[in-house]
Amino acid sequence: MAPMKPRYRRPVLEEMRIRSLGVIDDAVVELSPGFTAVTGETGAGKTMVVTSLGLLLGGRADPALVRIGAKAAVVEGRIVMRPDAPAAVRAEEAGAELDDGALLISRTVSAEGRSRAHVGGRSVPVGLLGELADDLVAVHGQTDQQGLLRPARQRQALDRYAGDAVAVPLEKYGSAYRRLRAVAVELEEITTRARERAQEADLLRFGLDEIAAVEPVAGEDTELAAEAERLGHAESLASAAQLAHAALAGNPEDPEAIDANMLVAGAHRALESVRSHDPALGALAERIGELGILLSDVAGELAGYADDLDADPLRLAAVEERRSALTQLTRKYGSEGTVDAVLEWAEQGAARLLELDGDDERITELTAERDGLRDELSLLAQALTDARVEAATRFASAVTAELASLAMPHARVTIDVRQAEDPDGVDVDGRPVAYGPSGADEVELLLAPHPGAQPRPIAKGASGGELSRVMLAVEVVFAGSDPVPTYLFDEVDAGVGGKAAVEVGRRLAKLAKSAQVVVVTHLPQVAAFADRQLLVEKTNDGSVTRSGVTVLEGEARIRELSRMLAGHEDSVSARAHAEELLAAARADG
Length: 589
Description:
about 600 residues; elongated
């Protein structure tokens, strides 16, 4: 059987089902593989489409999103993709499976704030959704517009556009920067703590000298304790040994006394005379003979023990003096109260002392390394700046070209890349440069809206409508450089109207020829260019139900475009204008 032919060349988000999320009770959002426009009156719940997709992409789970009275909000998505798509491969690694060529993703957020995620029928960490999102969807909204007004975000945007041309030198720079910071911290620690480290070294030297003067030996304290015990009871030990010897082998001063050896010998002789009559008795006779031999051996050892026992009080005094010296060491340096612990402290202390005594040498080494890293960092920072300047030229040209397609034919965008200066920074070619984790560059997007105008930062040099178009142009340029198959634009056309709005719709339709585009919009000029238009509307009780998200076709679409144009769907002039917009969009496509 031949393998099933994929429905699309790229991953496509076909459908989302949303339950108990904000104003939405239960609704299904069916999306086009091309351009889908989501429209509806203000407050109808259009932004819930964006919120739902954000949850599917691993966004933060806010319990406030759960519809009042519901236990949990649930968002489910169906994304059609090839089995070899990066997202499909990553999902398979996590144990998920495609269902008829589609990856099913769901996210549940409880009213208590708990969150669960499922991919391909398998429960997964929410973080996996974020990993999949990198290969599936790019969300561009008004929040992104405001973020791009900040220089730091503009630098990040430029780096993202440049790709490996900046990523490779940035990685090398980042490695050198982190090493320089580590060296600087260590150098500062050594120099600022010189007095404390000198005091530590003096204490270590004192302790090591004190231990060296005593010269302890491993296990010595245990052996001395046993010897002291023996010497302290020498007389009683000798007396007991002598009494035991006399009981076993007799007392030379009392020849008539009976000892154990005599009794055992008598028993052995008694049995030896009759052992031939019974083997059992013969065996007992042998055992008594062995007993006699053992008694003789023990008696001999007792005699030797008594003779060898040292009862010298001078030796006992020497042992106690040695034990006292060792006890002083164990109290100070033996955490476990043993000589072995003292020796371990001495070993570690000697190693630490070598480290402390090597501070001067280490300071010299670190200073040389710091200076070398500064030189290296200046070269890497310049290479990074050069790469950004080259990318900035291409990026600005691409955005300027997009603006020409968005009814701003005379506008010109430039990107200013300059190395920031810091009076306390490191001199590079006579300039004190402010190095940071991402380099020494400040990046600023400038706009000259018409010929003769001075380029100014976009936050200051653009009107509301111009700013929206600049941001949309930036997003479209990103879309052309990112390998992401689906783009969601959340009212990035705000502040745009008339002919400019038509150009925005035309540009989004052009983008949809190579990617799936979903646009939440209030502009009929944009919606008219969509392959599919979805209407979000509330019921009388203020909720969006399953029937509240509908695909508009024919007459229904004309009525919605009329409402968007004139405020109500029954306006004759608005209807004529709506039909004209649709006809123009079809002709343009």
